[in-house]
What we know:
Elements (H helix, E strand, L loop, with lengths): L1 H12 L14 H14 L2 E3 L2 E3 L3 E7 H7 L3 H18 L2 E2 L5 E7 L7 E6 L9 E4 L5 E3 L5 E4 L6 E2 L10 E6 L2 E6 L6 E3 L2 E2 L2 E3 L5 E4 L2 E7 L1
Parallel strand pairs: 2-4, 3-5, 9-10
Antiparallel strand pairs: 1-2, 3-6, 7-8, 7-17, 9-11, 11-12, 12-15, 13-14, 13-16, 16-17
Amino acid sequence: MGLQQFEQRLERLVEGAFAKAFRGELQPIELGRRLTREMDLHRAVSARGLIVPNSFEVVLSREDYERFGGFVDVLSQELMEAAKEHGRSEDYVFLGPIEVKIGWNDELAKSTFAITGEVLEGEETPTAWIVLPDGQRIGIMDEAVTIGRLPECGIQLSDPNVSRRHAQLRRQGEAVYVVDLGSTNGTKVNGVVARQQRLADGDVVTIGVTSLRFETG
Length: 217
């Protein structure tokens, strides 16, 4: 979905001043595909979910870089949007802001390029946590945290009463909500069934028969 939107936005842009930049062999959508593939290839499972690179360096041939000219900054922004959309569609987690730097290298031939990505943590620290039964605390940031039995869930529970993708913790500004994802056995907050509920410090979220405590501060 992210790549489709990326391509559609670029098509509108190249109708004007940037049209000449696209007459060569290298097309921006190729960069978008490679960048999202870089995310897929370097994803890593963590307690918070599937962590993927958020800082990318795109290196073009000097000829292609000059051909794109003043479009480079716009292209960088569009690639960031493509990464964000791809991350959202795949439930990936970014540990810091997404950034894409585009440069050139004389050693690269025309229409060839390289993209590398790495995980760079932002300076932001969590102000809300979910505490697992074993005492482990998982910080809740801007990305939703999925709770369920699947290995790719940010919080994986082995409880057989838990659905594969049971519920999510979602931040909206300073507030954190627990949202049931249509689970078989439902989600409870302080013993009361809840489809979507804002959490307060000390609330107990029950998933299956597993209790998780919400903390702030």
